[in-house]
Amino acid sequence: MLFPIFVVVTLAEIYVLVSVGQAIGGLSTVLLVIITAFIGSSLLRSQGWSTMAKAQQSIAEGRAPAMEMLEGVVIVVSGILLLTPGFLTDTLGLLGLMPWSRTYFINHFLEKNAERVFKSRNSVFIQKSESTETKNKKDETIEGEFWEDK
Question: Rounded to an integer, what distance in angstroms lies between the CA atom of residue 96 and that of residue 91?
Fold first, then answer.
C-alpha cells in the first residue's frame, strides 16, 4: 500500500514542479522550493519546542502527555515532508506544523483508527489508579540505618 502512494506522490511532485517551472521559470522555482524549506525549518523548530514545553508542563501537572506525543509525531512527519523537495509535500508539511490543522489531523486519525487500535486482541492497556499506588507504598518496608551527628 505504501509503494503506490510513494510513486503517485513522486509523479505528482514532478508534474507540479515542471508546471510551476514553465510558468515562472526554473530558477524562480528552485528559489521558491528553497524559501519554503527555510520557512518550514523555522516553523518546525518553533513548533517542536512549543510541543516539548507543553509535554513537560503536562508531566509536571501529573498528566500523561498523550496529545503532545501525537503532536510530536505529526511534527516529525511534517519535517520529513518539508525535507522532500516539492510543493505538494511542502504544503502538507506546513499544514502539519500549524496548530489548528495539526489538531485536525490527529482527530481525523483517531476517529478513523481508534476502534481498530482499542479493540485489538493482541494489545494490553494497563492503567494504574492512584489508590493502588499509594496502597502499595504504604505496605512497603524500607530497611536502612540511621545515626545522628552530634
Answer: 9
35, three cell numbers: 524559501
DSSP label at residue 35: H
Question: From CA 96, how far away is CA 26, in angstroms rounded?
Answer: 27
> Is the pTM of the predicted complex or chain greater than 0.85?
no
Per-residue DSSP letters for 51-99? Answer: HHHHHHHHHHTT---HHHHHHHHHHHHHHHHHHS-SHHHHHHHHHHHSH
Instruction: Please count the other Cβ atoms lying within 10 Å of the Cβ belonging to residue 86.
Output: 21
pLDDT in tens, 57-87: 999 998 888 889 999 999 999 988 888 888 9
